[in-house]
Amino acid sequence: MDTVKYVLSEDQMPTSWYNIAADLPVPLPPPLHPGTGQPIGPADLAPLFPMELIKQEVSTERMIEIPEEVQKVYRQWRPTPLYRARRLEQELGTPAKIYYKYEGVSPAGSHKPNTAIPQAYYSKQEGVKRLATETGAGQWGSSLALAGALFGIEVVVYMVKVSYGQKPYRRALMETFGAKVLASPSNTTNAGRQILAEHPDSTGSLGIAISEAVEVAAMDPDTKYALGSVLNHVLLHQTVIGQEAMTQLEMAGDYPDIIVGCTGGGSNFSGIAFPFIGAKMRGERDVRVVAVEPAACPSLTRGKYAYDFGDTGHLTPLVKMHTLGSTFIPPGIHAGGLRYHGMAPLVSHLLDLGQIEASAVQQLDAFAAGVQFARAEGILPAPEANHAVAGAIAEALACKESGESKTILFNLCGHGHFDMSAYTDYMAGKLQNYEYPAEEIAMALAGLPSVG
Asked: Exposed, middle or buried by CB within 10 Å (0-12, 13-18, 19+), for 395?
């Protein structure tokens, strides 16, 4: 039988998260205090995060147990299915085998609840009453809003202004779950007011929205900050994806030669790839891993590997990452979840070590791949996920050219049901490609902080 879907039972769900820090051949450069330039300690992060998350952020333990309360919520949608894209393979005429892990089955429609649930759980354990966060496309905001509803915590979301306008139904979903949603930059914070004073028509950025959310958390002892990507503990929580995929591929009698993931901050890419990269670094199995980002926000392919702020208002610690500069304001492309000036330090470190590759895809090529995938497989990807689809199709066509039968795995990190305006614009020919000008990147990078 030509199996299409590989499904695990609830008792096969991972009970621990995988921490890639345990297998790194070179340790990750530490975050630095922006004032002293010295490595930060737990006390520096305590105003923003629950202590359990801070411990996970700095841990080098390979496996970290998932609390039973978190597992109970995970079981609402996990384990997620692994699909063999047989119809897409046939349409492409490729000898390659294409598998995709589908995270769009979660209540929020993406992979983001994998970290929203534990972040809300640990906050509740510590007596936190409110969580402040940012969101680009709204997938993270809706996931944290869901987690806040489940654990009885208030949630305030600063949504990048261009996405606030582009995605009203994602905003409505957050509000249905009980969150308060504000367009960023806003007049509710000093960071937002400063941006609006200089740029009254600012369309916003994730860096600006992060500044607003961090400011709210830092000013209120009852509020903590929650981040949907980039940080070590966030990437850690997503590794349930790759661990499940390993078991499912064993069921299929297969193992990936190539893993493809879309990258903005790095969370879904890490979720699918880190368990496999860990096996590679331990000398168990080889795999080629490709991170695909938008050409309009090319932190991995055109950014600099350097210490930088994670936000535009310079309220966060300095982390070493591939960055376009914290003042970088990306264009309003529809892949809102990938519009971030930096890349997760762990992903950046792996690229620097040569463990992964990076490529960039134009907006029109990403949407063309998403439409082709939807017509073959019947699932409409989110604009962010279209970058992974485009990368996987490119690898499959390369196999067609070479005649090699390689196994390709990618993460379909979310559905596009709240992104229909983007597809409508694409079908109407209203979308454009955008290559970020080299001189503007150079200007943003010129403002990088000086670190001794």
From this structure: buried
